[in-house]
Fold this protein.
Amino acid sequence: MILQGYSQLAPVYPLIAQQIVDDYGITQGICCDIGTGPGFVGIELAKITNLEMYFIDDKQEALDKAEKNVSDSGLDNKVHFTKANVCMLPFEDGFADFVISRGSLWFWDDQVKGLQQIYRILKPGGIAFVGGGLGRYSPASMRNRLKGMGKKKMQKQGKGNFLNGDGLKVLLEKTMLDGCRTISDVEGEEETWIEMRK
Ligand SMILES: C[S@@+](CC[C@H](N)C(=O)[O-])C[C@H]1O[C@@H](n2cnc3c(N)ncnc32)[C@H](O)[C@@H]1O
């Protein structure tokens, strides 16, 4: 069952998963979905790959929902559920082949430290895709309807440090990490994602 708050975004998750596989070709090894919430990005990635999935969130309630949704999805992939803050990831250096984190960066206490931790747990040759957005495969009509939905809701509640475009680039500079760049979903729009290649 899809949670109410996320039901509008349901068509976006498989599109983002497909984009990731098309762009990075990573279909096996270890994948961490950080700030997984109800787990939908990781679930859709798992459906089309052999990735061993780590669903990670700092809220137990989110992990419980992710576990329920994973169980309802009938995945054959190996799955794990880890309660952790992105700023203190309980994994050794070089642990993951791929890290996805969608819609979570804006809520981290320390975005620089979180990004540095993600880089630390990537294997040499590993890739991370961190940020937010609807992915470039979402059709224009869907984008018009959904763009900025979560951001507006959270800003109303006074939550989130939403960095796009130049703000995201400044954040990246502060991390002093190599092999990183910012990416937008649609050419000409502000960047909302950070790609890391280790
Ligand atoms: C808006 S939800 C996004 C959920 C999912 N990734 C998606 O795209 O649907 C943000 C999630 O990030 C988690 N989160 C926020 N700060 C975090 C942190 N410092 N470490 C780990 N998870 C965090 C929240 O608990 C929440 O489940």
Notes: The longest helix spans residues 60-73. The helical segments are 4-7, 12-24, 40-47, 60-73, 111-121, 140-146, 149-156, 165-175.
